[in-house]
Amino acid sequence: SQELEQSPQSLIVQEGKNLTINCTSSKTLYGLYWYKQKYGEGLIFLMMLQKGGEEKSHEKITAKLDEKKQQSSLHITASQPSHAGIYLCGAAIIQGAQKLVFGQGTRLTINP
Amino acid sequence: NAGVTQTPKFQVLKTGQSMTLQCAQDMNHEYMSWYRQDPGMGLRLIHYSVGAGITDQGEVPNGYNVSRSTTEDFPLRLLSAAPSQTSVYFCASSRDRGFRVTNEKLFFGSGTQLSVL
């Protein structure tokens, strides 16, 4: 079973629309990471959240970690073709963990 | 800095063949790890290392061996390749031994696409 569940698994949006991707765990998250992967390439770090209620933004992408630290959301405002790719959340689910577990990824397609 | 370098980028093997996927980082990172990525499964941890001479198993270690003789290198060995090992493999490294430190993150290589026929 997947320790981190991402939803949706696939998303197609019109350019200019907003969208949200969710990452949910049944356990407390100690460090939640968002990465983006362009098709056929490696993973690019987007943001890291650690504290409950924390919110970070980079350009048109905002990520939040809920107060209970069991869910994170990634929100893209006014989507652009450059936002297309696979978004993965990763987390340490044990405090002081020496490994990150990842969700199954969300494939985002932006239609012009 | 080159970051995390993986070789080769593509490889085709026959069932039963052996090979080594290479991973090197030039950031003096303590922590290195190998993941495989399969459709609908996300990234799954194969093996990881918190320093030279120290390795440990991840979620899916069967069929893979690793060693860490230097800080820079962390090769992944497939002793007898099987079709189930067809996947994209990513090496990643991090400065710290754990993920307790704010802003610590994994740096990923560009991946190796492996097909086992």
> Helix/strand/pairing class of chain B, anyone?
mainly beta
| SS strand fraction of chain A | over 45%
Range of helix content of chain B: under 10%
Largest β-sheet summary of chain A: 6 strands, mixed
Describe the structure.
The complex is a heterodimer of chains A (112) and B (117). Chain A is mostly beta strands. Chain A has strands spanning 4-7, 10-14, 19-25, 32-37, 43-49, 55-58, 61-65, 71-76, 85-91, 101-102, 106-111. In chain A, a hairpin with a 2-residue loop joins β6 (55-58) and β7. Chain B is mostly beta strands and 117 residues long. Helix content of chain B is 0%, strand content 50%. Chain B has no helices and eleven strands. Chain B has strands spanning 4-7, 10-13, 19-25, 31-38, 42-51, 54-57, 64-66, 76-78, 87-94, 107-108, 112-116. Classes of the chains: A mainly beta (112), B mainly beta (117).
Chain-wise SSE layout:
The complex is a heterodimer of chains A (about 110) and B (about 120).
Chain A: E1 4-7, E2 10-14, E3 19-25, E4 32-37, E5 43-49, E6 55-58, E7 61-65, E8 71-76, E9 85-91, E10 101-102, E11 106-111
Parallel strand pairs in A: 2-11
Antiparallel strand pairs in A: 1-3, 3-8, 4-5, 4-9, 6-7, 7-8, 9-10, 9-11
Chain B: E1 4-7, E2 10-13, E3 19-25, E4 31-38, E5 42-51, E6 54-57, E7 64-66, E8 76-78, E9 87-94, E10 107-108, E11 112-116
Parallel strand pairs in B: 2-11
Antiparallel strand pairs in B: 1-3, 3-8, 4-5, 4-9, 5-6, 7-8, 9-10, 9-11
